[in-house]
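Hello,

Our lab assistant flagged a job as stuck in the queue for most of the afternoon. It eventually completed. Since we weren't sure the result was trustworthy after the delay, we are filing this so someone can double-check. Below is the sequence as submitted and the structure that was eventually returned. Let us know if re-running is recommended.
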Amino acid sequence: MPYGHAVAVMREMNMDPYTYCSDYYTKKNWLATYSGTVYPIEHQSEWEVPEEVKNIIVLPPHERVKSGRPKTLRRKAGWEKDQHNKCSKCGELGHNKRTCSRRRRRE
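-- returned structure --
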């Protein structure tokens, strides 16, 4: 399926967006996908599980799953520069005047 902005351009150019859609998304193919019978699963006691699958022991992960949203680093574009904090008291990089450990020198 084309993205919305592509559809907008196609309509502006009097083109039919459906010509750029895959046949998988047509109504005919969508209905054919679900036309077969879906049988319900039997009770777990009636399942036929191979012995090699029964003998596999699944252990929990070694690491504890941390709570909250995982931290990710954003990939910077080639034209972006690294930004560093510059202290207005001492002029050094890596911190600001609120976290500066030096006292301001009087000249």
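-- support follow-up --
The delay was a queue issue, not a problem with the job. The result is valid. The mean pLDDT is 83. The chain is about 20% helix and 0% strand.
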